[in-house]
Amino acid sequence: MLPSSVHIPVLLAEVLTALRPSPGDTVIDATINGGGHARALLRDIGPTGRLLGLDRDPTVLDKLGALAASDIEGGRLRLVAASFAHISQVARSEGFTRADAILFDLGLSTHHLEASGRGFSFEREEPLDLRFNAADPELRPAAHLLRRVRADSLARIIATYGEERHAKLIARHVVEVRTRRPIETATALRHCVLEALPPQARQHGLRSVARVFQALRIATNGELDALERALLQVPPLLRAGGRVAAISFHSLEDRIVKRFFRQAAAAGDLRIVTKKPLRPGIAETRDNPRARSARLRVAERPAD
C-alpha cells in the first residue's frame, strides 16, 4: 500500500465522497503525482479493485513505484509515464476501459516545487526548466523560450496564462535584460520580474512573480491544451454511473473544466453533480495552505 507520508492530498474527503469508490472498482488517477489520492482510492477499492496512475514526469513514477512495489506486483496498481492528453490510448492498452471513476488533480506537486531541481519554485537557485518531463523531445525549457520570444508574444503569454496586469512591463523588461545578462535560473527571473514592476506594485511583487512562473510553466508544457484534449476522452472511458472529478487550482483550468462539463451535459454525455465547485474548509487550508485555491467539480456518465 502507498505510504501516507508521500503526499498531502487536497480535498481528499470530498473526492472520496464524490467518486464513491467501492470494492472491485476500476479507477484511473490521471495525475497520480505523489500518490496521496491514490492511496485512499486503493484502500477503498480493496484487493479486487484496480487503479491506473498516469503522470507526465517519469521521475515521480520511479519514486512512487519503489514505494508501491507490492501493489504493482499484485496487479492492483499500474503506473504509466504519459500525459493525460493520451488518457484514452493508455487506458485501452492497460485494460482500463469502462472505469468506475476518473480523477484529475491539476495542482503542481510537492515534488516539483521542492525536489525536482527544475526551477518550479522561484525561491530556489535552479535552472529555469519548468518541464514536467525534462526528457520529452517535444518540449523546450522555459529559459529557451525566454531567450527567443518577442516582447509582444511574451506579454500575451503572461497576461493570458498568468492573468498578470503588468504583463507588458514585465515582458519588455525581460527582453531588455536578456541583451545584458542571461535569464537562465529561477532566481534570475524572479529578480527580473521584481525590477520590472512599478514601485507601488513591489510591496506585493511576489504575487506577480508567481503569476509569471505559472504562465511560463503552462506555456512550456502546453497544459491547457492537454487538459482540453483529455476531458474530451473522458465520457467514453466511464461506465454508466461512473464519475469524473477534477481539482483545479487556478481560474483558467477551472473554466475549462466547467465549460466542458456544461457542453457534455448539454450533449447528454455527462450529468453535472456539483452545481458549484467544492472548496476546502478552514481546517484544511490552515493545515495545508496550498489547498486554499482548490476547486473540485464532479460529473457522472448517465445510464445508457
List strands and helices in order, with pairings.
Elements: H1 12-19, E1 26-29, H2 36-45, E2 50-55, H3 58-67, H4 69-73, E3 77-81, H5 87-94, E4 99-105, H6 110-114, H7 142-148, H8 151-162, H9 167-177, H10 186-196, H11 205-221, H12 223-232, H13 234-237, E5 238-248, H14 251-266, E6 271-272, H15 282-287, E7 295-300
Overview of this structure, please?
By secondary structure, the chain is of the alpha/beta class. It folds into two domains: 12-111 and 224-300, Vaccinia Virus protein VP39 (Rossmann fold, 3-Layer(aba) Sandwich), CATH 3.40.50; 118-222, Putative methyltransferase TM0872, insert domain (DNA polymerase, domain 1, Orthogonal Bundle), CATH 1.10.150. It has 15 helices and seven strands. The protein has helices spanning 12-19, 36-45, 58-67, 69-73, 87-94, 110-114, 142-148, 151-162, 167-177, 186-196, 205-221, 223-232, 234-237, 251-266, 282-287, and strands spanning 26-29, 50-55, 77-81, 99-105, 238-248, 271-272, 295-300. A seven-stranded mixed sheet has the order 3-2-1-4-5-7-6, with helices on both faces. α9 (167-177) crosses α10 (186-196).
